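WARN no homologs supplied; continuing
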Amino acid sequence: MKAIIVLSAILLLISGFALGQDRPTVTAQPNSVFVGADGKFEANPDTALVQFNISAQEDNSRAAYDRASKQAEQVRQILRSNGLEPSAAQLGYFSIEPVYDYKQAKRKLVAYRVNVNVSLKLKDFTKIAPIVQQLSDGDITDEQSISYTLDDIDAAKTKAVEDAYRRARASAEAVARAGGRTLGELSYASVDTVEFRPMPMQPMARMSAMAQAAPAPTEGFSPQTTSVTAHVNAMFMLK
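OK structure emitted
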């Protein structure tokens, strides 16, 4: 029984310590009011991230490398045809791996595979569809994925903090009025921000020419927004 009581006390101490880490401890001052408030700002994404793989498999490493090189040149031409420099694309990894057949007791080398992961950030969303289509038509990759993100996240955080501060000040003014006082200057403040990015889209299968005639499944919809929340603790003096 004593062990259970001791364990419970330890858990309470740990929980109290964890909660103390979430919000700063402020010593109350005479003629002051301490308030906290949450704010939020939702921003539309400003960047699309297109990711795909260049993959080639041949009987020997030289042939696989040469085929991957030709596919990479196709990618460069696609970028140029859409007004982009090849340097806009970034390589995530590059590998040349042997492919084995494990059907027999002793594994057998049957081929070599070259894999190149490519990422492309686009600010102009109108370029997404033609680039994705051309990559598919060029027999370069079987899978592509698109995700939307917000590069200018600092501006969104600032908006969320401003919203939280307005709410905190409004609460402090309400307390001051209820007590027959006037809200004075800000004497202390702390800020915490949290960013919630949308989940990336699942990989898309190769687009066929027939699919071009029908609207895309995403046509007419808006990308999911990036939400930023902020918590502001503020202490105001009372007049």
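Residues 153-178 form the longest helix (26 residues).
OK
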